[in-house]
Amino acid sequence: MVNRTANYAAFYVAEPFNESNLGANATPDFLYYNQFRAWKGMDSSFPFVDAHAKTYNVRDGSEWETLKKRLHERLNASKNIVLFLSSNTKNSRALREEIDYGINIEGLPVIVIYPDFKEKSDIWSSTGMRKQITNLWDKLPVFRDNMYKVATLHVPYKKSLIVSALEDADFKVQTMTKAGAYHYKLD
Predict the structure, then answer these.
(1) How far is it, in rounded angstroms, from Cα 36 to Cα 43?
(2) Residue 1: inside a domain, yes or no?
(3) Is 149 within the bounds of a domain?
(4) Strand, coil or helix: 67
(5) Residues 135-170: tens digit of each pLDDT
């Protein structure tokens, strides 16, 4: 069995992608992922293990089949997917492949981080998941249509809640809770 210790960060970037060019750093969803890497760099106890660091980088202009193989290798070594879903997210080929393969082939739970929202009440109200959240699911139909096959945890972009989500055994493939949508309770 594969040693599944990594968190697979899924985020939208314009294709073709090259981390070293300025275009990547102008892509908001990529910046949120970079924030996770910075938090880890500043504090080794931050519970993010970057799956993208587990295999060698794919260069800008790589063939789709090469990129897809790398994505699968990284997902195979992951305990979950951390999906950054924002108003900037677009339904790219790579993001569709990551979510489809991660959920439907690997059965990985998904921790959905909503960078546009900072509080638990932005995600959930007493009547259910907020419309502003469910509207974002439409930006990525492969996620919207398959999310109930695995456990999904919906989290605002607040570091303390993100830490709790990353440490939660219910959202690791080895110890995943039953499939469904979860959120943090309102205080």
Answers:
(1) 10
(2) no
(3) yes
(4) helix
(5) 999 999 999 999 999 999 999 999 999 999 999 999
